[in-house]
Amino acid sequence: MTGIVLNNGVSMPALGLGVFQSPPEETAAAVEAALRTGYRHIDTAAMYFNERQVGEGLRRSGVDRADVFLETKVWVSDYGYEETLHAFDKAARKLGVDQIDLLILHQPATDRFEKTIAAYQGLEKLLADGKVRAIGVSNFMRHHLDELLSRTEIVPAVNQIELHPYFAQPDVQKADAEHGILTQAWSPIGGITFYPGWGEDRRNVLEAPVIGEIAAGLGKTPAQVMLRWHLQQGRSAIPKSTNPGRIAENFAVFDFELTEAQLASIDALDTGVRNGPDPDVPRAERFNTVIPEE
Hints:
Blueprint: E1 3-5, E2 11-13, E3 17-18, H1 24-37, E4 41-43, H2 51-61, E5 69-74, H3 81-95, E6 100-105, H4 113-128, E7 132-138, H5 142-151, E8 158-162, H6 170-179, E9 182-186, H7 209-218, H8 222-232, E10 236-237, H9 244-251, H10 260-267, H11 284-287
Parallel strand pairs: 3-4, 4-5, 5-6, 6-7, 7-8, 8-9, 9-10
Antiparallel strand pairs: 1-2
Helix pairs in contact: 1-2, 1-9, 2-3, 3-4, 7-8
């Protein structure tokens, strides 16, 4: 599998399994299936409430812990220096590991950004102590990154953002590249564009004619084409599925290449319209959700 060397020299598999919105009772089986398929990167978060099941799936798979890159996220209610150190303890305990490969802040949380800065300083301490191998952020826009970088010591290794053909965030990608930060795509095949309850005017990017035509010509699926688009442009992608067949399908993206013209035609689909939450809009009730100890 294609690997990416992060800005601190750590190697991370470019393609991972995401478990956002994966019910806890389905997560262990999905992780086990992914690892048996060949995935070696799993992305979860404290706020997904399925870290324990990710660890269970890892153990059930029989794959050596040292061969799997585990990524998780600190939730906003655990921001602050000491709080973030404790958030690591909670996550490591649930995952059943001593070290986390990549630990990132889940949101910039602009309504409490001082705590965000303190939380990142906690990540820096965890990195210095060897408890994590790399640190990063999620949903940070250019202005969030500028403020963070002016007040902390270590450049994030990763910035995980909403990124799919309908919303490619070129300015954030550029900001990441300027600082040597890897852009990682959540909702990489546009799942957020057709989640139930997100509005009736959302278009399913899997049904985009341009992508369908490319897929048909290559004998691939639209999802595979989109994942290839991410990988060829140097991004990490973490597609989510609990269906073993779909998990395997999403992994079968290393045996073909898109042409420059095909990449450009997918780039041209960008609408500039965000489908997930706006990182600059505080969501106090959700941000205050307490992450349990066990």
